[in-house]
Fold:
Amino acid sequence: MTEKILAAQPLPGLKRAGFTSGFGVLAATLGSAVGLGNIWKVPYLTGANGGAGFLLVYLLATLLVGLPVMIAEIAMGRQARANPVSALQKLAPRGQPWWLIGVAGIVAAFLILSFYSEVVAWVFAYVFKALRGSLLSSDRQVTEAAFAALISDPLQSLLWQWGVLAFIGSILLLGVTKGIEAITKKLMPILFLLLLLLCAFSLSLDKAAEGLAFLFKPDFGKITASVVLTAMGLAFFKLSIGMGTMMTYGSYFGDGQNIPVTAARVMVADLCVSMLAGMAIFPAVFTFGFAPTAGPSLVFITLPAVFSHMPMGQALMVAFFVLAAVAATGAMLSLMEVPVVVLHERLGWSRPKATLASLLVLMLLGSGCALSNNVLADFKPWGMTLFDLFDFVSSNLLLPAGGIFIALFAGWAWRGEGLKRALSNHGQLRNETLARALVVLLRYVSPLLILLVMLKGLGLF
Ligand code: TRP
Structure:
């Protein structure tokens, strides 16, 4: 099997699709970065890790590790104009097995999608429940019971998840230009509009200042080693790096696209989305006397209770979960595109066939996660439910390992020269100083820092 994959060369005459405009590139790439990470992970991790101090460390991690690796991935993808497996084969010195990063990336994509699609399933279910008004209660116990009822029902969990997967698959069937680019171009502006609306409401509440202070006034005493490492893991997940997503999207970038500038824009816009989400959530949480430290349940249990206290609470709650659904859609498109394009280009399958095959695998693997809160709750290989196991293996093993090897590849195996040439658009842009700084970061700083995250994630120190 491996040999067959290896032997398969890019098919002659296969015309590669790509993003057609600067705005399309930005929307699709930002669409990948923005996701449940911003709406769900950043707020709860910030809440649980002491607020502004955590954000500050996250910002540093994004600049020192996230941005360099993201730029490298995009540059590698565009240079090779191929899926991650083929791209690494093309760019690597003869005989070196760097393409294994691409293979690990496909595994990571399936694992992440399996649990991610289940959380997205809850989001979609919440949109409908919010519309019906059945979630609105000021009593946290009631909102907790509503959430428990959803995740403990195997049929609901499965159907919502499969619905979500089919929805994403059907967009991918339309292709890179008419599917991914066209849809994200529409979704991203809607996302910003909804966010601004929710923010405006939240900031007009009584204790908005308290929420803002929690978000923006760092308490340096709360920054511990483990906070630093959590923040770095988040920086990774946020920018969709370490598994070939950005490499794949890079392969759709136009030749004239300024990669460092685009990546920096995406990073800044993604940060803005996270901050706006925080500014929409924390003022409300403080105003109505809830704890900002609720953890992963913040969005699904605390927030519905918060909304019930607000004027127009139901409409705002619908808006919030639609916002989360919109954000998650762009992220899932980018995740699923990785196996689709690999199957398409390596095995010569048509895009529809590759999409359907990926979809089938995902429905199978994903149901392990959908059922892990009910029927399979007691099935715990290595002491974790499948949901937690998939999250653990992808976030703590595959993504950081992928990140380390991508950084090492771009910094060493590509000899820095390849990166410099790709970033300057083959001499058209004058950015050697920037490229030189990136090479230093990619050679030494990023791999070492990521290694620390990984060891911590494995509980090795
Ligand atoms: N960045 C997305 C989010 O924050 C998730 C995501 C999309 C992702 N593609 C990825 C995470 C690739 C890791 C790797 O929700």
User: Anything to note?
Assistant: The chain has 19 helices and no strands.
